[in-house]
């Protein structure tokens, strides 16, 4: 059964986890990028994210994916947390997938406060079986984190059992 790691990363932490996860679970990998260029200045980015949360003026349409989701049964989904949740455009990508009958292994990279992102994810992935998320603080090195290893083992056991 095919699996894929899909992820977004602004400053590289999630990307590092995503690459190791894809390698160790023998999954395909796809980076999802923002449809609009993101500011390089962290403060400007932060202000933009706050604005879009305070004034959610544009209801986003689902964004087309750069791969065919019908080919995959297992989705390993990674993102940084922005204001406690997923970036808006990341959610729009996830909304393009028919989640029925799929298995989801979420992981997030965060720097301090975790919000209600997991509730949001479960709401989007209607019909999927969504595993407990792996939450990696940005100060942790994935190779040294025992919970990262255990999480990879869990994914591998799952994909092995459904082969
Ligand atoms: C705009 C913005 C908002 C953020 N908001 C949060 C937050 O609410 N909670 C948190 O724990 N970390 C927050 N962070 C920190 C990131 O989640 C953290 O640095 C993460 O490891 C970045 O992953 P990346 O390198 O893959 O982009 C925020 C970072 C940015 C740029």
Structural summary, described in words:
With 163 residues, this protein is an alpha/beta fold. It has a single domain (3-161), classed as Rossmann fold (3-Layer(aba) Sandwich), CATH 3.40.50. It is 35% helix and 18% strand. The chain contains 5 helices and 6 strands. It has helices at 13-25, 42-54, 88-94, 117-124, 146-161; strands at 3-7, 28-31, 74-80, 103-110, 129-130, 134-137. Strands 1, 2, 3, 4, 5 and 6 form a 6-stranded parallel sheet that branches. It is globular, with a radius of gyration of 15 Å. The termini are close together. The mean pLDDT is 93. The structure holds flavin mononucleotide. Residues 9-15, 42, 45-46, 49, 80-84, 109-113, 138 line the site of flavin mononucleotide.
What global shape is seen? globular
Mean pLDDT: 93
- Sheet-strand content, in percent, reads 15-25%
- What is the third-level CATH name, the topology? Rossmann fold
Q: What is the CA-based Rg, rounded?
A: 15 Å
CATH architecture: 3-Layer(aba) Sandwich
How far the N terminus sits from the C terminus, by CA atoms, comes to: 6 Å
Give the ordered list of helices and strands: EHEHEHEHEEH
Number of strands: 6
Classify the secondary structure makeup into a structural class: alpha/beta
Q: Which homologous superfamily in CATH is the superfamily?
A: Flavodoxin domain
């Amino acid at each position: 059964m095919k699996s894929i790691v899909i992820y977004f990363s602004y400053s590289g932490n999630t990307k590092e986890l995503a690459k190791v996860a894809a390698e160790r679970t023998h999954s395909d990998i796809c980076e999802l990028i923002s449809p609009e260029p993101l500011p390089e200045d962290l403060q400007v980015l932060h202000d933009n994210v706050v604005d879009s949360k305070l004034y959610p003026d544009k209801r986003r349409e689902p964004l087309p994916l750069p791969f065919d989701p019908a080919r995959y049964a297992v989705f390993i989904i990674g993102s940084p947390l922005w204001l406690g949740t997923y970036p808006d455009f990341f959610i729009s990508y996830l909304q393009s997938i028919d989640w029925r009958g799929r298995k989801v292994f979420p992981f997030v990279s965060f720097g301090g406060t975790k919000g209600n992102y997991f509730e949001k994810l479960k709401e989007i992935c209607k019909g999927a079986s969504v595993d407990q998320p792996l939450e990696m603080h940005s100060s942790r090195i994935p190779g040294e984190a025992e919970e990262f290893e255990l999480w990879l083992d869990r994914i591998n056991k799952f994909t092995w059992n459904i082969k």
